[in-house]
Design goal:
It is a single chain. The chain folds into two domains: 96 residues, Alpha-D-Glucose-1,6-Bisphosphate, Chain A, domain 4 (2-Layer Sandwich), CATH 3.30.530; 58 residues. Helices cover 47% and strands 20% of the residues. It is built from four helices and six strands. Strands 2-3-4-5-1-6 form a six-stranded antiparallel β-sheet.
Length: 179
């Protein structure tokens, strides 16, 4: 699988399956395949590496399988970082952006009142430097988020092939669809 562009932070995909959702979900509930940890909750399945095989940046695969048409189901997948890490990273971005806006308002107020606003401009500069540092840290993490057995795309392909293999063993047919 090749990603459509370099900005795909959390690529999504869909697969059409020639089987109802429940038998497909059962395939994952009864499967134990090291180094993967497979957890299932309702129609959702989470596949990640076990603690010894993973690091801070290791991606994971989550998907939902829902009944689609008579005798078919649809798999909606999401491939990306740990949701806790993703939420924290977005929270930090939000805080920095909010601080830049607040400092900008404070600086404008000081300017409009004829007071000194060098402190505010300095703090805005510091926030911009922090934001750039966060961007660099994120790019570094994107390079480091290699799965233990290869790239994130290889992890997805391995998982898709695993699903395909399980499907053939259980007569599950995957209908290819563009990702």
């Amino acid at each position: 699988m090749t990603l459509p562009n370099g900005i795909a932070l959390r690529p999504r995909f869909q697969l059409l399956l020639k089987e109802k959702a429940l038998p497909v979900l059962e395939l994952f509930r009864e499967n134990e395949d090291p180094p993967f940890l497979i957890k299932s909750l309702g129609q959702h399945v989470f596949i990640k590496f076990n603690k010894t095989e993973s690091n801070f940046w290791t991606p994971q695969l989550q998907f939902e399988i829902v009944d689609y048409e008579e005798g078919q189901s649809k798999l909606y997948g999401l491939f990306g970082p740990n949701p806790t890490l993703w939420t924290f990273f977005m929270f930090i971005h939000f805080i920095i952006a909010t601080l830049i806006i607040v400092m900008g308002i404070w600086a404008y107020s000081g300017y409009a009142l004829g007071h000194s606003y060098t402190l505010q401009i300095g703090l805005i500069g510091l926030m911009v430097v922090l934001w750039v540092a966060l961007y660099v840290f994120g790019r570094w993490g994107k390079k480091k988020r290699q799965a233990p057995n290869g790239t994130p795309a290889q992890l997805f392909n391995t998982t898709a092939m695993h699903l395909y293999y399980l499907g053939h063993r259980k007569r599950l047919i995957i209908i290819p669809k563009s990702l």
